[in-house]
Automatic annotation (TrEMBL):
This is Enoyl-[acyl-carrier-protein] reductase, mitochondrial. SUPFAM superfamilies: GroES-like, NAD(P)-binding Rossmann-fold domains. Its cofactor is Zn(2+). GO terms for molecular function: enoyl-[acyl-carrier-protein] reductase (NADPH) activity; zinc ion binding.
Length: 333
């Protein structure tokens, strides 16, 4: 029986305090199972929250973090169809534990992707791009020329929103924090297709100066005053979607927006919400749609900053750095 390395936590807490690199025995491959060699697995906020015990989808303890990644099929069970040794696959289920060198999983929990898809694209395929795509397509009927406003525009989802919106002929107003490298950040986002890049404080004035129509859709991953600011510039009857809370500040919808502008406030969660309601077939189709956008050049994969599992402390520190323009990922040895 072969072994694999994995980052394991036996209790919830801060990842730097509770994660351990361990050698694990791999179980035999059952008739409905596959053995997968992990090629790359990114660090996402949901992974950190999982280890902390704050994320709704939790593995049983001791557990292995990692909701996302790309792997290569090494062995297939006798009753597995649709997957073969050598195929590249991504998770179709959450909390599979991708921060490992290899594992044995249910074949139904993985989805085949093209082997020539860039590793950075495949490793980051299943959370942020489909979140952006669903929020742009499934919540409000948007037409070319319509405006979307978002905060956290430098986040992974924010970058995907900008690129997908441009492909659809939508306009984006993008709120980011002021920073020492402001001009570089603005140039970076504009190169992706951003129409307006501004701060929370300048949002109203910069939107008015742009000549763009009032937004129909607001996408919030920050919370607090930033969430309120993007709500206030929505057109009457607009929709405000919260999919994150990076500031850890509560969402407090201004009462006047509810009464006088009939703004709708709602949430979005791709993993335990949309995917659970839609089912595996629709989920797989969504991932294929994202792959199509990548292949058509609508989405540019992030640059990966790679770390072996043994350097997990450095990887965690790198993933928490402010204003980074890359994705930190484990690339098992």
């Amino acid at each position: 029986m072969s072994t694999a390395k994995a980052l394991v936590f036996e209790r919830n807490g801060e990842p730097a305090d509770v994660l351990q690199l361990k050698e694990q025995q791999l179980p035999e491959v059952g008739e409905q199972d596959v053995q997968i060699q992990i090629i790359a697995a990114p660090i996402n906020p949901s992974d950190i929250n999982t280890v902390q015990g704050k994320y709704p989808l939790q593995p049983s303890l001791p557990g292995v973090p990692g909701h996302e990644g790309v792997g290569k099929v090494v062995k297939v069970g006798s009753k597995v169809s649709g997957l073969s040794a050598g195929d590249h696959v991504v998770p179709l289920a959450s909390a599979l534990g991708t921060w490992r060198s290899a594992g044995v999983f249910r074949a139904a929990d993985w989805h085949k992707v093209p082997c020539d898809l860039p590793i950075a694209a495949a490793a980051t395929l299943t959370i942020n791009p489909p979140t952006a795509l669903c929020m742009l397509e499934d919540i409000v009927q948007l037409q070319p020329g319509d405006t979307v406003v978002q905060n956290g525009a430098t986040s992974a989802v924010g970058q995907h929103v900008i690129q997908l919106a441009m492909a659809k002929g939508l306009k984006t107003v993008n709120v980011i924090r002021d920073r020492p490298d402001w001009e570089a950040a603005v140039s970076w986002l504009r190169a992706m297709g951003a129409d307006v890049v501004t701060t929370e404080q300048k949002l109203k004035a910069d939107l008015a100066a742009s000549g763009l129509p009032a937004p129909k859709l607001a996408l919030n991953c920050v919370g607090g005053s930033s969430a309120a600011a993007i709500a206030k510039v929505l057109q009457a009857g607009g929709t405000h979607v919260t999919y994150g809370a990076m500031s850890m500040q509560p969402l407090a919808p201004p009462t006047a927006l509810l009464i006088f502008k009939d703004i709708t406030f709602r949430g979005f969660w791709i993993s335990g919400g949309w995917a659970k309601r839609a089912g595996p077939a629709a989920h797989a189709a969504l991932l294929d749609k994202v792959v199509g956008h990548i292949q058509q050049g609508h989405l540019t994969p992030p640059k990966l900053q790679e770390f072996p599992l043994a350097r997990f402390s450095e990887a965690l520190e790198a993933s928490s750095a402010a204003h980074k323009q890359h994705k930190v990922a484990f690339v098992p040895e």
